[in-house]
Amino acid sequence: MANQLRLPFLSFNHLTIYLILLLSQSPQIFSTCRNFCNNIPINYPFSIDDGCGAPQYRHMLNCSATDLFFLTPSGNYKVQSIDYDKKTMTIFDPSMSTCSILQPHHDFKMSEIQSAIIPPSPDTIFILMNCSIDSPVLNHYKSVCFNFSGHSCDELYGSCTSFKLFHMLSNSTPACCFTGYETVKYMSMDILDCTHYTSVYNSDKLEGVGPLDWLYGMELSFSVPDTGCERCAKSGGTCGFDVETEMAQCICSSTSNSTRDCAGGRDTNFAESYRASSFPRVLYILALGAISYHIVLRR
């Protein structure tokens, strides 16, 4: 019976080694890049999946079951909206004070790359409140404070329920400072000697508008790296990058019919993506063949 089974096949051990080598040399299987977090669209340069979007914006967003968050060294800030035409993102600091709630002071800090590519827009105003008479912004650095559409500290403390506490505790109008991001970027609240802060955006449209109707939060202005994403998108691909080298690439889905346009300048094309997506099925078929051959040998 053994003589009748001299077939021109590889041995079981040879097939096993072949499968291992095939697995180690197979192309990377790309996961789909999600383009929504709840009701907020996620487009280039942003992403919520590693390897998608632009590498400069890597790990900046986190999508939970209910909210999208912008991640910074000082904490997580809820993303309220992203306007891709105006290239702005509106975020809200859950730890800052507003007209309706008074919270302990909290520093707003961004990483160096965030400050460079997605800083607060010029019309985002930081308001330092309940500053001491020795505060640097009232003395040596008083030039960092500016007129904010004719609004005053007295108006701020008198209009908002939570800020009225400053009036009550001091029986006067404590100093405040309307300033820009550069001030809080380089000086902490402790150095500024102000107990609380809040921020508003669209400040150029708030002249004559009382504090109760201000838009509280921050508007960030982002830039979009030019890496040929328009061509990639037209080809059916999604702009992303290699997670190890951070080189730009066009991620193709298993249903795309494009070729090199879906490679983002790399040699990878749709055929390779198809082989990657089909690899588990090929491996399954080869494994079944190897097992069947091993069973025949044992008979």
UniProtKB/TrEMBL annotation:
Which reaction equation describes what this protein catalyses? L-threonyl-[protein] + ATP = O-phospho-L-threonyl-[protein] + ADP + H(+); L-seryl-[protein] + ATP = O-phospho-L-seryl-[protein] + ADP + H(+)
Q: Which UniProt keywords apply?
A: Glycoprotein, Signal
User: Example GO molecular function term?
Assistant: polysaccharide binding
| Membrane topology (UniProt) | Single-pass membrane protein
Boundaries of every Wall-associated receptor kinase galacturonan-binding domain copy: 33-93
Enzyme Commission numbers on file: 2.7.11.1
Chief site of localization:
membrane
Domain Wall-associated receptor kinase C-terminal positions: 217-254
Q: Where in the cell is it found?
A: Membrane
Please tell me which top-level EC class this enzyme sits in. transferase
Annotated signal peptide: 1-31
The entry's cellular-component GO terms read: membrane
PANTHER family documented for this protein: WALL-ASSOCIATED RECEPTOR KINASE CARBOXY-TERMINAL PROTEIN, WALL-ASSOCIATED RECEPTOR KINASE CARBOXY-TERMINAL PROTEIN-RELATED
What name does UniProt use for this protein? non-specific serine/threonine protein kinase
Instruction: Provide the species name.
Output: Nicotiana tabacum
Q: What is the lineage of its organism?
A: Eukaryota, Viridiplantae, Streptophyta, Embryophyta, Tracheophyta
